[in-house]
Design a protein that fits this description.
The chain is of the alpha/beta class. The chain is built from five helices and nine strands.
Length: about 150
């Protein structure tokens, strides 16, 4: 796994959102984007992380930051997650994990003695010009929002 670093251009992407509308990185030009990769909708850690991002949306907006979640979940699972948790940001479906691979967050994981390929919980703050400003890879799901907001202060 070779995660992209700050200063690198963010890979261009084109993925379907929860409404099956295609979004690209270029759609966010002029805004900062917190592109956060999470393993699976409606699982405990991913739910806590999403709830915290939802609850602090206004604080992100003050810094011109748009939150966007990316997971390998199929499009049809995303509206259920949004509705169940009353999420107020976009989720993207990366079923073939090509975008996760481009950002270097897809790789070998270990969980309860089992090894498998999956998404590593890493977030990228992408600046208004599409350059990675900061990589967040050390946080607990419940503190993710605070780690990012502390950086933005």
């Amino acid at each position: 796994m070779n995660t992209l670093a700050a200063g690198a251009p963010a890979p261009a992407f084109s993925l379907p959102d929860e409404n099956n509308q295609t979004l690209t990185l270029a759609d966010f030009k002029g805004k900062k984007v917190l592109l956060y990769f999470y393993p699976k909708a409606m699982t405990p850690g991913c739910t806590v992380q999403a709830q915290q991002l939802r609850d602090h949306r206004d604080e992100f907006a003050k810094h011109n930051v748009t939150v966007v979640g990316v997971s390998p979940d199929p499009v049809k699972r995303l509206p259920k997650f949004i509705e169940k948790e009353n999420l107020n940001f976009t989720l993207l479906s990366d079923e073939d994990h090509s975008v996760a691979e481009a950002f270097g967050v897809w790789g070998l994981k270990k969980f309860m003695g089992r090894e498998y390929d999956g998404i590593h919980r890493i977030s990228f703050l992408i600046d208004e010009n599409g350059v990675i400003e900061k990589v967040f890879d050390k946080f607990k799901t419940k503190d993710h929002h605070q780690v990012v907001l502390d950086y933005l202060q």
